[in-house]
Amino acid sequence: MTALAIRDGLRRVTVAQGETRVSDEVDVVLTTVLGSCVAACFYDPVARVGGINHYLLAQGSASDAASMQRYGVYAMEVLINAMLAMGASRHRLKARIFGGASMRAGFRDIGGTNIAFARTFLRQERIPLVGEDVAGTGARRVEFRPALGLARCRTVTDAAPPVVIRTVAPPASTGDVEFF
Length: 180
What we know:
Elements: E1 4-7, E2 10-14, E3 20-23, E4 28-34, E5 38-44, E6 49-53, H1 65-68, H2 72-85, E7 94-99, H3 110-125, E8 129-134, E9 139-145, E10 150-156
Parallel strand pairs: 2-4, 7-8
Antiparallel strand pairs: 1-2, 3-6, 4-9, 5-6, 5-7, 9-10
């Protein structure tokens, strides 16, 4: 289920794992949080339409449509087709990719595989990669304004807030003793 929140006059639509969203509305912000997953943001500057996908794995062997949504090639094709249906032209598409972090040391590099898939796909489809914020070890929050082609990516940290120690002076003695 996609969450919609209105803040600062903008409609924020949350894009979950395996989802793709496309819009040509200037007040829409598509947002997602990524770990080892990758999100691709595509934009057509003439049609002023853009979209984002969020895929979990580069490749897989699922045969049902619900499971296919997790895989990169399916997510990329769905995104392109949805944009074409809204008036975008394939030869004008520009792309940015985000995510692909290594979230756990000692496990296979799912993030790296997802990044490599996205780069290869874009190169083979001749879609220019105009920006990326990928790899590393931190999760990311991506916000994309599809009608404007603007993207912002922030690293999400799970560090504990700083501990503040306050010294409180004991109350002045009045000579009374109170028990409780």
